[in-house]
Specification:
The complex is a heterodimer of chains A (about 190) and B (about 170). Chain A has about 190 residues and is mainly alpha-helical. Chain A has eight helices and no strands. Chain A folds into two domains: about 100 residues, RNA polymerase sigma factor, region 2, helix turn helix motif (Rna Polymerase Sigma Factor, Chain: A, Orthogonal Bundle); about 90 residues, Winged helix-like DNA-binding domain superfamily/Winged helix DNA-binding domain (Arc Repressor Mutant, subunit A), CATH 1.10.10. Chain B has three domains: about 50 residues, no CATH class; about 35 residues; about 40 residues. Chain B is about 75% helix and about 0% strand. Chain B is built from eight helices and no strands. Chain B is rod-shaped. The chains are: A mainly alpha (about 190), B mainly alpha (about 170). The interface between A and B is medium-sized, with 36 and 26 residues.
């Protein structure tokens, strides 16, 4: 993932979008749709949900572009909206799920995003099931660890970009990722 | 063992090549000599490899076409909110609808009772009744200003007699 500063073309598109230009909006959609879909998909875990969330992200961009400050990077601002919208979606889905059942909680007392599925820790990283187990394990991570890990290792963002999205320092992001890796490692190996 | 503890805390940073060359080499030397720490590094490598292999599914042009169509529709809907009859409005109008219905019923009843004054033809059942009826007609004619001449009056009288005498 490369995250260049706002170039002249992008700055011009943003300026036009502030004036309500639909062609400028369409051009920005073209630029960011793939990266946006990737983030939304990795956070929601479903392509149709990701599509729905991403549409909402672009609508938010259209209506809130006036709040975007030129000194910031548009890409960081866009990714932050994508992450927050995806997490809002997960929260709503969790509420719907809670109508029928109560979810188990993780180590920090947060409810897991998905139902707990028992698995054998000895079954390590060797089959397709590992990917599903990894998804569930990631979903069980605390919020900031989860987002940091996904953005870093599934979306290829750099630590300083993640720091911009989460509004925290780069060292904090590195700690989140380190802890996430350690937790995941423990779940995939019996020895820890 | 103490060194293993330190190295294991730095394995992820080592994997991401976050350290200066000197520190990187130092860890590498330890890993070359320590199979247990090397195994831990392999686990991290496999974990990250698995995570990074989880790619977004390939989407085709049709997907993006649908995406853009839906996006435009949703955006337009927000820009121009649909005109909808507010739910409260129907309740506000309800008393007026009730009054209008009552008014229609009253008008209907009034029309039935007073609006239609169709006169029924009564056939006299006796000579006396016939004479009374004729007298009443005369009075009504006088009140309404009808001006019968004598011949028409006799013709009408004869017609009534004939009608009265004709078999039912």
């Amino acid at each position: 993932m490369n995250c260049e500063p706002v170039d002249n073309n992008e700055a011009e598109l943003i300026r036009q979008l502030r004036q309500g230009s639909r062609p400028a909006f369409d051009a920005l959609v073209e630029i960011y749709k793939n990266k946006g879909l990737s983030i939304c998909y990795n956070l929601t875990g479903n392509i149709e949900d990701a599509k729905d969330v991403l549409q909402e992200v672009f609508i938010k961009v259209y209506f809130n572009i006036k709040n975007f400050e030129d000194k910031a990077r548009f890409s960081t601002w866009f990714y932050r909206i994508a992450v927050n919208s995806s997490l809002d979606f997960l929260r709503k889905r969790k509420k719907m799920y809670n109508l029928f059942t109560s979810l188990p909680k993780n180590e920090e007392g947060e409810e897991k995003e998905f139902p707990d599925t028992r698995y054998d820790p000895a079954r390590v990283l060797s089959s397709k099931e590992s990917a599903a187990v990894l998804d569930k394990s990631i979903a069980e991570l605390p919020y900031k660890q989860r987002v940091s890990f996904i953005l870093k290792h599934q979306n290829g963002l750099k630590a300083h970009e993640i720091a911009g999205i989460l509004k925290c320092g780069v060292p904090t992001v590195k700690v989140h990722i380190f802890r996430a890796v350690r937790s995941l490692q423990k779940k995939f190996t019996s020895g820890g | 063992m103490l060194e293993c503890l330190f190295v294991r805390r730095k394995l992820y940073g080592y994997f991401c090549r976050e350290f200066a060359e000197a520190e990187h080499d130092k860890i590498k030397q330890h890993l070359d000599a320590c199979p247990a720490c090397r195994k831990k590094l392999e686990e991290i490598e496999e974990l990250i490899k698995l995570a990074e292999a989880r790619k977004t599914p390939e989407v085709n042009e049709a997907f993006w076409h649908d995406f853009k169509t839906d996006l435009d529709r949703r955006l337009n809907a927000r820009l121009v909110p649909e005109l909808k009859l507010r739910p409260g409005l129907i309740y506000k109008l309800r008393p007026a609808l009730v009054y209008a219905s009552v008014l229609v019923i009253i008008l209907g009843l009034w029309t039935c009772r007073f609006g239609s004054r169709a006169r029924r033809i009564n056939i006299a059942q006796s000579a006396e009744e016939l004479v009374n009826e004729i007298n009443l007609n005369d009075e009504l004619s006088l009140e309404s200003g009808l001006n019968h001449d004598e011949g028409a009056y006799i013709d009408e009288f004869n017609l009534l007699i004939q009608l009265d005498e004709s078999p039912a």
